[in-house]
Amino acid sequence: MNVALAYNVKPESQTFHEIVPPILKDRSTQPQKSIDTFAEWDTWDTVNALKEALESLNNVILIEADDSAFNKFRESKPDIVFNVAEGFNGGSREAQIPSMLDMLQIPYTGSDPLTLATCLDKARTKEVLSYYKIPNAKFLIAFELNEVKNIILKFPLIVKPVFEGSSKGIFSSSFVNNPNELNHEVERIISEYNQPALIEEFLPGREFTVAIIGNGNEAEVLPVVEINYNDFPQDFVPIYSYEAKWILDTKENPLNIFSCPAKINSDLDLKIRKTALKTFNVLRCKDWSRIDIRLDANGEPNIIEVNPLPGILPDPNDNSCFPKAARSSGLNYNEMINKVLFVAAKRHKLL
Question: What is the C-alpha separation between 253 and 319, in angstroms, rounded?
Answer without folding.
Answer: 11
